[in-house]
Amino acid sequence: MSVKFSWSLQLPYASFLYTNYAASPTERLELNAFLFEPRQELSRLESEISHIRALLDDLLTQHNQAKAFVDAHFALTDPIRRLPTGTLVEIFASLLLTMVCRGWRDIAINLPPIWSSLQIYAKSRTMLERWQQGISGWIARAGALPLVVSLSFQGIGMAFGERISSFMQTLMKFSPRLKEVVLNLDAELFPLLESVSPQSFPLLENFSISVPRSNFLIQFTKIPFIRNLAAGMPMLQKLSINGFSEGQHFRSTLKWTNITELVLESTHHSTGLPLEHILGILAQTIKL
């Protein structure tokens, strides 16, 4: 049975505590005798604490083992495991699905819909090269489904011009399957589209091109890729062009009758479309 000690500092040597006072030889003997039982109590408490810590460590080990066992089995009941594959595709990015587990990877690789959409943000030569090497394999996993492609080439400069032109030529091999194209690039890179030969886009319904913060006039319809809007995109319904200069043939070369959504934005206040051109376009866009 342990003895209850009083740890009050109001004892014989209280006035000397927390000072630089040095005990005399006689006082040292008295202190050793005075502290005999308190030191025994301190030792007992430390021993008891060690024992309790050992018990606690053992309990924590058992707790962790039990929790791991329960969590592993309870995970089989997680609601996300019951979600249809199509729902998982809508929630998670394609590559993310392949990194969750083997089961999800198998689902992702063999599910064409999640590979029918590409969002490419190339901000370095390495990223651009990797995409060019992998784009054919990516699209192959999409089977025969229509493709939705979003490309962003901003902030990388003309140093990558040749690589971008090559990448666009690779992408144009799949032009008959393109359903939606969103293109964002720096103004200095826009002329590179001249190297992209006009293609047929029989399925293209949505086309958006943006050249933000352009510092020079751009004749969009002088670029073969853009001029082909009239003849090569019979299904086009949504058109968005940001950053252009007004041209006399802008209105006449485009076919507007199927357009249901239209955005035309100039980056220069002095280069927007004249009122008569705007009215002419509105007269043709009967489905807006």
Q: What would you call the shape?
A: elongated
Report the oligomer.
single chain
Order of helices and strands: HHHHHEHEHEEHHEEH
- Helicity, as a percent range: 40-55%
Q: How many beta-strand runs?
A: 6
Approximately how much beta-strand content do the residues carry?
5-15%
**What is the CATH architecture annotation of the largest domain?**
Alpha-Beta Horseshoe
* Radius of gyration (Å): 37 Å
Structural class: alpha/beta
Count of the separate structural domains: 2
Terminal Cα separation, in Å?
93 Å
Main beta sheet, described?
Answer: 6 strands, parallel
Average pLDDT level = 76
Can you identify the CATH class of the largest domain? Alpha Beta
> With helices defined by DSSP (H or I, 4 residues minimum), what is the helix count?
10
CATH fold node name of the largest domain: Leucine-rich repeat, LRR (right-handed beta-alpha superhelix)
Description of the molecule:
This is F-box domain-containing protein. This protein is of the alpha/beta class and 288 residues long. It folds into two domains: 24-76; 116-284, Leucine-rich repeat, LRR (right-handed beta-alpha superhelix) (Alpha-Beta Horseshoe). The chain is 40% helix and 12% strand. The chain has helices spanning 25-34, 36-74, 85-91, 94-98, 102-109, 125-141, 161-172, 224-227, 229-232, 275-284, and strands spanning 117-121, 147-153, 178-185, 206-210, 238-242, 261-265. Strands 1-2-3-4-5-6 form a six-stranded parallel β-sheet, with helices on one face. Helix 7 links the parallel strand 2 (147-153) and strand 3 (178-185). It is elongated, with a radius of gyration of 37 Å. The mean pLDDT is 76.
